[in-house]
Design brief:
With 296 residues, the protein is mainly α. The chain is built from 13 helices and no strands. The two termini are 35 Å apart. Its main location: membrane.
């Protein structure tokens, strides 16, 4: 049992490392491949890589897939395409450290949307956790100066990332209506939907004259995003959830901003400021606090 738990923890830690690296890869891609083209390349490769492993499961799951194709398309378009397009576009204007910290507010966005839409029960700890996490995201988005909110001088990259966080939060809540499929079929269907949804975005980028064709660095970053955050991390996360359950596995998401910040400093040479450290403490502390307590 201890060995199973230890291996599950390693799998989940690797998952969060790969997800934290997604922001670093996106930052490395900035200026070397345009964000919408990067999104299209990512989901093209992910779909092609996943296809051989999914075919058998797709045939078995087809009766459940066919009547829910539009649902699956919308989930993939929002959760995979629009979120990653927002993330990669944001990294052209802000730092990878900022993006990973802002990204970590997703669990609290999910909490708020669940409460507003489904009237899910609210706990005092969840309210306190939301306020702490919101404080951390606010510190990050305003670069340690909340007074910027009153002058409307937020960095466009941070604003784009917050839009992406809301989109992914809505996607997470909408997963309640997804059909019951094998994880291989689910990932392939969502990846295929993401690929289809990314095509018009890439065409629009090209029509506006903003396309940057990938050089070696851009292609390497795109390959990383397709293999590690999109496919390997998703597969490892599912195995981790199966081993220790979703509630315990979800706590590991708190490591994404930590790994992301460390990688951004080591690989990109980004500066880690005091407000980043304070924001990380607020965000992680807020999420952990929201996981505790009883309903009031």
């Amino acid at each position: 049992m201890i060995r199973v738990l230890a291996s599950s923890y390693v799998l989940l830690a690797l998952t969060m490392l790969f997800w934290g690296g997604n922001a670093v890869a996106g930052k490395l891609a900035a200026g070397h491949v345009s964000p919408m083209l990067l999104t299209l390349i990512r989901w093209t490769l992910a779909t092609l890589f996943m296809a051989p492993f999914a075919m058998k499961h797709l045939r078995a799951d087809w009766p459940a897939i066919r009547p829910r194709m539009m649902t699956l398309f919308l989930l993939g378009a929002c959760g995979f395409t629009l979120f990653n397009a927002s993330l990669y576009a944001a990294l052209n204007f802000t730092t990878a450290i900022n993006v990973t910290i802002e990204q970590s507010s997703m669990p609290l966005v999910v909490f708020v949307l669940n409460f507003l839409i489904f009237r899910s029960g609210v706990t005092g700890f969840q309210v306190a956790g939301f306020l702490l996490t919101f404080t951390g995201v606010l510190l990050t988005a305003t670069h340690g100066d909340p007074a910027r909110l009153f002058t409307l001088s937020l960095n466009i990259g941070d604003a784009l990332m917050l839009v992406g966080v809301f989109i992914y939060g809505a996607y997470t809540v909408a997963l309640k209506v997804k059909p019951q499929l094998s994880w291989q079929s689910m990932i392939f269907c969502l990846s295929l939907a993401a690929f289809l949804a990314a095509i018009p975005l890439a065409i629009g980028e090209f029509a506006l004259g903003h396309t940057i064709w990938p050089d070696a660095q851009g292609a390497t970053a795109a390959l990383y995003t397709a293999i590690f955050p999109a496919l390997i991390a998703q597969s490892l996360y599912i195995r981790g959830v199966e081993a220790i359950g979703p509630n315990r596995a979800n706590l590991f998401v708190n490591f994404v901003p930590i790994f992301g910040a460390i990688l951004a400093v080591l690989i990109l040479g980004e500066a880690l400021y005091a407000y980043h450290v304070a924001a990380l403490a607020f965000v992680i502390g807020g999420i952990l606090l929201a996981e505790r307590g009883e309903k009031i």
